[in-house]
Amino acid sequence: MLNRSNLIYEYDGSFEGLLCCVFESYEKKEIPSDIALIDEHQVSFFPTKKILTDAKKSNRVLISIPKKIGNSALEFIQYSFLTCLPKKELYILMFLHMGYSFGPSVMNMLSNDVVNTLFKAVKHLKNESHLLKGFVRFSSFNGGLAAEIEPQNYVLPLLKQHFCERYPEENFLIYDKNHSMLLLYEPYKASIIPIENMEFNEPNEEEKHFRKLWKLYYNTVEIEGRHNPKCRMTHMPKRYWKYLTEFK
Q: Strand 144-149 relative to strand 189-194: parallel, antiparallel, unpaired?
């Protein structure tokens, strides 16, 4: 029997670290009141416990998920971990507790608050990554292409395959300013790395010329009589406009 605890688990922010929190929860037969990044949670009267990342423990949990809950559940929590959902770690832990009890059927328990909350968060993640596949605007940068985005969710792992397949012979990068992460690609080799405060050069004359051509094309194809700002904002949310060349 698992007991609710006033403990706050602290972990390193990695997916493996979160799986170690799940391991700890089962080993100690307790459910923490929260799971926070080490030294980043708000001041609280509740005691804290630092959960160290252990590859053996995380791997045991990782292997158990598809065995006991199904492959779709493993993919689901991996996506959940990329979302911007507040307290996502605690939701994932509680979801796994349910999954170990109910098995694969947990994926259909949408009336449950934990399952429903995670499903909504994953849907938001996938919708945002889908929109950004069309909203990313590249510019010339140091002999390659570069783009900057500010997504709410951590979408670079979902964008990686799309853009690597779309530009297989190019050198390009996509900088996620909100999460301080960089998708870096050179032909047939891609990586996602942490980076702080990346600065982009001012566009050269050639780049300015192509930006003007793109704006001209965008304005030319519009049918004036069908101009509908509200519809445009529905399909192209305003928070993405900052990095859209046609709106600069």
A: unpaired
Cα separations in angstroms, 175 against 25, 179, 197: 36, 9, 10
Q: Phi and psi dihedrals of 9, rounded to 5?
A: -80, 135
pTM of the model: 0.90
**Which distant-in-sequence residues (6+ apart) come within 8 Å of 89 by Cβ?**
11, 18, 21, 35, 36, 81
What 3-state class would DSSP assign to 95? helix
- Give the containing element (helix H, strand E) for 247: none
Q: Which of 48, 62, 47 is nearest to 17 (CA)?
A: 62
Domain locations along the chain:
3-126, 136-201, 204-248
Q: Residue 43 carries which DSSP code?
A: P
The reported pLDDT for the residue numbered 217 is 86
SS3 208: helix
C-alpha separations of 93 from 26, 144, 242 in Å: 10, 42, 36
- Greater confidence, 232 or 115? 115
Element spanning 141, H or E: strand 139-141
* pLDDT band (50, 70, 90) for residue 219: confident
Q: Give the pLDDT band of residue 50 (cuts 50, 70, 90).
A: very high
DSSP tag of 150: -
What percent of the chain is predicted at pLDDT more than 70? 97
Helices (H) and strands (E) in the chain, counts: 8, 10
